[in-house]
Write a structure and sequence with these properties.
Blueprint lengths: L7 H7 L6 E2 L6 E2 L12 H7 L2 H24 L5 E2 L6 H12 L8 E2 L2 H30 L5 E3 L3 E6 L2 E10 L5 E15 L5 E8 L5 E5 L2 E7 L11 H6 L3 E10 L4 E10 L3 E3 L1 E3 L3 E3 L5 E3 L7 E3 L7
Parallel strand pairs: 6-14
Antiparallel strand pairs: 1-2, 3-4, 5-7, 6-7, 7-11, 8-9, 8-10, 8-12, 12-13, 15-18, 16-17
Helix pairs in contact: 3-4, 3-5
């Protein structure tokens, strides 16, 4: 007898057979990634990724299914439950509800060894179910959701006489994100000398990649000099290489003291060359400063030398 192909079952349970990669939008992405449908092979992660409405529907469906199965088991032996109508699925269903929830019996109670055995099994199922549901609910509530936004576009503008890649990010919660750290990568297709096509990552150095407290907004800058992976890059060259700018932000939420993460991708079409962001900070009387987030995504062309 031939043995199964090595790794067949491991591949079936852990890896999808085909992953569709799409770059038509300018963003190189794996379709279905981070969507709850993609976790059907992993029930635990599926229950964590489900929207809350579907999560409650799954719990309700499981609750009804378990009680229905035990109701059928109880009705299989007539007379096993005192004061239950013979053959009544409705009576045995509500008897199962009382058993599963450890509510305590009223007029109905088990009278035979068979029924007592089913009651003991259902009691154990109830204890395990409550523990699992409690753990899942806690895990879902304890997941920290970073309400961090990034500007719709990035720009390449001069800064201290050098071309600089610039984009904005802001904290929508208006609390403090402690020890916030940003990492920015250029990701593009390349062909090695051997003809092998690869997707390569290049980290972009930032003028400031860390801040002790991230409260309102953050203007991120990468100087495009001779050492930059973006040196001599153009819109056309990034398009040809399917280049993306990947941004990853991490920090500690001051309110719940949990680590948070946020990320964003800029396609080649999202980079505005020879543009600059409109200033969103202005001063009022008395020395006060204000941030007008209506200008958060607004950019303007840089006037050519000699223009008014």
């Amino acid at each position: 007898m031939t043995s199964p192909r090595p790794g067949l079952f491991r591949t079936w349970f852990e890896l999808p057979h085909i992953v569709r990669l799409r770059a038509s939008t300018g963003r190189f992405e794996a379709l279905g990634l981070n969507q709850w449908q993609a976790h059907w092979r992993d029930p635990y992660h599926l229950l964590l990724m489900l929207p809350w409405q579907l999560f409650f529907l799954v719990l309700l469906g499981g609750y009804l299914a378990v009680n229905t199965l035990f109701a059928l088991a109880y009705v299989a032996q007539p007379g096993g439950i005192e004061n239950a109508a013979p053959g009544s699925i409705l009576d045995t269903f509500f008897f199962s509800v009382q058993t599963l929830g450890s509510i305590g019996y009223g007029a109905m109670y088990p009278t035979t060894i068979y029924t007592h055995s089913i009651v003991a099994l259902e009691s154990m199922v109830g204890i395990v179910s409550i523990a699992m549901i409690t753990g899942l609910a806690f895990a879902r509530f304890s997941r920290s959701d970073a309400r961090v936004v990034f500007s719709d576009v990035a720009v390449v503008e001069p800064h201290d006489g050098r071309p600089t890649l610039v984009f904005r990010t802001a904290n929508r919660r208006r609390n403090q994100i402690l020890e916030a750290t940003l990492k920015v990568y250029l990701i593009q297709d390349e062909v090695t000398l051997e003809g092998l096509r690869m997707r390569r990552f290049y980290e972009l150095g930032l003028l400031r990649r860390e801040t002790p407290q991230f409260v309102l907004s953050w203007t991120v800058m990468h100087v495009i000099d001779g050492n930059s992976p973006l040196h001599r890059a153009t819109l056309d060259s990034l398009r040809q290489k399917r280049g993306n700018i990947l941004v990853s932000l991490s920090g500690l939420d001051e309110t719940i003291m949990q680590p948070i993460h946020a990320r964003h991708t800029y396609a080649a079409e999202d980079i505005r060359w020879d543009h600059r962001f409109v200033d969103m900070i202005y001063e009022a009387g008395g020395g006060d400063r204000f941030i007008d987030y209506r200008y958060f995504n607004l950019v303007e062309p840089i006037p050519a030398s000699g223009d008014g």
